[in-house]
Amino acid sequence: MRDLSSLLQHNVAWAEGKLREDPAYFDKLSGLQSPEFLWIGCSDSRVPANVITGLEPGEVFVHRNVANLVHPGDLNMLSVLEFAIEVLGVKHVIVCGHYGCGGVHAAVDGEEHGIVDHWLQPIRDVAERYGHELDELTDPEARHKKLCELNVRSQVQTLGRTPIVQTTWKTGKSLQLHGWAYGLEDGRIRDLDCTISGPEGLISRRVALPGTEIGF
Pick the catalytic residue: 63, 64, 96, 98? Predict the structure, then answer.
């Protein structure tokens, strides 16, 4: 188990290494923040946005929370979203979930986990809405992966309905919302093919009835 001093030592080694590679590295990094992407991902320590996408610091603006959720009342997430779009001028917002997500497991395992149960309610809503699809999968791992993907798709839809994104589209600005899923077992990112570029990409919300197609 590492102690705090080892983290500081690793930081010194990392900083010195960067300077050897490029003496102006930190001057350039501190001078301007101009990311092209906003990443809304899970807090899981195994899914660091910069590392798995091969991006340098300053190239991606990041917001992370348990199970990569987009709560319409989450002022933290909304503040990040507004700053990213209106100040930094990002053109792509990526919601990235991951297979093996503890938050997704906790949402539907039937156990009590405390305050996080309230946070995870949107996942239970998705699981209920698409229960017929999930029930068709008899393998627990396959069912979990499917729910992870459905959750990402749902968050992309929710993101597209936020007033910040709606206003951006109404003013004619280019903004694309994407949904990805990361595999812990192989380090690969899957594009879930649910990109939205405008209001026309939003799926209508229909009441779920037996045997009917439903939207988010």
Answer: 98
| Same structural domain, 16 and 39 | no
Query: CA quadruple 11, 77, 201, 189: dihedral positive or negative?
Result: positive
Query: Kind of pairing, strands 176-182 and 189-191?
Result: antiparallel
Burial 108-120 (b: 16+ CB within 10 A, else e): beeeeeeeeeebb
44 is catalytic: yes
pLDDT average per 10 residues of sequence, the chain (216 residues): 88 94 87 87 96 91 98 96 96 98 97 97 97 96 98 98 97 97 97 97 63 43
Same domain, 122 and 138: yes
**Quick one: 26 and 64 in the same domain?**
no
Q: Which of 63, 64, 96, 101 is catalytic?
A: 101
Annotated catalytic residue within 44, 64, 144, 153? 44
Whether 46 is catalytic: yes
- Domain residue limits at 103: 33-201
Q: Assign residue 145 the CATH number of its domain.
A: 3.40.1050.10
Render pLDDT for 7-63 as a digit per residue (tens, 0 to 9): 999 999 999 999 999 998 888 888 767 899 999 999 999 999 999 999 988 899 999
* 207 part of a folded domain: no
Active-site annotation holder among 42, 96, 148, 194: 42
Cα–Cα distance, 100 to 106 (Å, whole number): 11
Give the predicted TM-score (pTM) of the model: 0.89
- Are 135 and 37 members of one domain? yes
Is residue 63 annotated as a catalytic residue, yes or no? no
Total domains, the chain:
2
Q: Quick one: 196 and 94 in the same domain?
A: yes
In the set 10, 46, 188, 205, the catalytic residue is 46
Respond yes or no: is residue 148 known to be catalytic.
Answer: no
Whether 98 sits among the annotated catalytic residues: the reply is yes
Give the separation between CA 177 and CA 185, rounded to whole angstroms: 25
